[in-house]
DNA sequence: GTGGTCTAGACCACG
DNA sequence: GTGGTCTAGACCACC
């Protein structure tokens, strides 16, 4: 499980942790029944305060992605993969939708918008190669 | 000049005001030399705190879009249209880029991402018809 | 809005705050559109740390009972009464169910259990007079 | 001696073990002079950490329910039945009392509370038939 | 060792 | 003024 956290930027650290766990589970990189890193361990790895990790884990628990096993850690639940794939799709769709709505509200023409989208889409795909 | 403000939601109200003025100028709906509404007037119209409008106007002034005319209000500058078209493009591109980066980070496949984009793109265009 | 908090005892303070707001809304003592006390205000009143109150308020927001109004406070939502009455019933029923299941598991006879329940029920009702 | 342990849920495992031994003795299912399972044996049976069982047995010893016999295990004491019947009653009464107090604090009417109690009471009794 | 709660206090964005 | 986030560190229960 690899995390990359941007401590600056507008997105709270704990939200970044939540999202990355969700993406990891959705992608199958984190298996059902396995344990995500302990609060202290991950805090040390990410150079953030344990409380920040703990808050992320509470959110993940609330989402049904992990369940606390007392004395052992946070275990990935059986319904996590389904929930995470759905959640991932929702998160991504929501962000795309908001961006495109902003674009439409800006009175840019549909052609201009599509050009921008295509440019950024190839840029992103290029990065993934 | 029509404003639509979403008091809830993650985007600060003052940013919404700034963006909508920029979009209005960029689209040619707000002319050079005209005056945007007074702080009090707009605050009343939008049911927001005057401080919020004032902050938006400060930003617009700092961006060179409007300039204060004592006793008369905020006048749209001659360089505003050029600046706003550029700024608009930057704003929209930035949001699209961020959304697509998030999509890539989520480990969704490029195909799935493109499908989501296409769905939302037609949805947005549909709304504009 | 009156709160009574038991800082000792097994129930976390933030849960007590959550429950009491829910009960207040369910009982009609807290109206839709009104604002619950600010974090700092309630923290001072209850002699607890503001963070503790903030955590309770986050839970209430997650439950859809209140919504943050930036710069103004936490407003009771329109769906709060329905949600709170339902939630209250669930909470109380859950506690009663657990107690009675424990009683059944203890191999006490149904008659003994009913006697205990009746005793405690009259004791509680007596306190409310 | 049959145990049913819920590893999740709010009740600590060691408390569940303690309670079930108490209930077994109170109901006469566990006889004076008999031996309860060894720590290792029970831990293996319940898929629980031996420390957890050991802690439960410490509590039972402290309560005077069992007494350690070197090399042979934990023996049920002669005063255990009386103590367990009393303890059982206390435990059950305490849980019922707490549940009903919560119900009263929730501002549900006495009638609503009684209805909930009756519903759950018949539900529990139904399960025992 | 694990997570959970609480206090303490800083800093920030927003209105 | 409001809530939101983060760091810091204590204490606890449980395994």
Task: Give the SSE map.
Four copies of one chain form a homotetramer.
Chain A lengths: L12 H14 L8 E2 L2 H8 L3 H13 L3 E4 L3 E4 L3 H26 L4 H19 L1
Antiparallel strand pairs in A: 1-3, 2-3
Helix pairs in contact in A: 1-3, 1-4, 2-3
The first copy, chain A, binds a DNA duplex (15 and 15 nucleotides) through helix 3.
Explain what you see.
- The structure is a homotetramer of 129-residue chains.
- By secondary structure, chain A is mainly α.
- The first copy, chain A, has two domains: 13-82, Orthogonal Bundle (Arc Repressor Mutant, subunit A); 92-128, no CATH class.
- Chain A contains five helices and three strands, in the order H-E-H-H-E-E-H-H.
- A three-stranded antiparallel β-sheet of chain A has the order 1-3-2.
- The interface between A and D is small, with 4 and 5 residues.
- The structure holds a DNA duplex (15 and 15 nucleotides).
Distance between the termini of chain A: 20 Å
Low-confidence runs of chain A: none
SSE order of chain A, one letter for each helix or strand: HEHHEEHH
Question: Which fold name is given in CATH as the topology of the largest domain in chain A?
Answer: Arc Repressor Mutant, subunit A
């Amino acid at each position: 499980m690899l995390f990359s956290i941007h401590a600056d930027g507008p997105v709270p650290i704990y939200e970044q942790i939540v999202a990355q766990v969700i993406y990891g589970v959705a992608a199958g990189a984190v298996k059902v029944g396995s344990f995500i890193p302990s609060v202290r361990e991950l805090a040390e790895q990410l150079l953030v305060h344990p409380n920040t990790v703990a808050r992320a884990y509470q959110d993940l628990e609330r989402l049904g992605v992990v369940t606390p096993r007392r004395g052992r850690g946070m275990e990935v639940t059986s319904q996590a993969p389904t929930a995470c794939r759905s959640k991932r799709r929702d998160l991504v769709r929501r962000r795309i939708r908001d961006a495109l709505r902003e674009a439409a509200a800006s009175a840019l023409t549909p052609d201009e918008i599509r050009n921008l989208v295509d440019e950024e889409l190839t840029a992103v795909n290029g990065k993934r190669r």
